[in-house]
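REQUEST FORM: STRUCTURE PREDICTION
Request ID: SP-0412
Submitted by: Lab K.M.
Chain count: 1
Length (residues): 41
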Amino acid sequence: MSKNSRFNFHILSTILYSINRMISLFFMIFLWIAFYPSSNN
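STATUS: Completed
RESULT:
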């Protein structure tokens, strides 16, 4: 049971890490678009 809970925690931490990385990536893309507007050719 302890092994199973540890495995579930590992999966949860991996999912949270990937979500955090995607959020930071989208935030960097948003900052890039905000500071370099493509509408101002």
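NOTES: The chain has one domain: 1-40.
Reviewed by: T.R.
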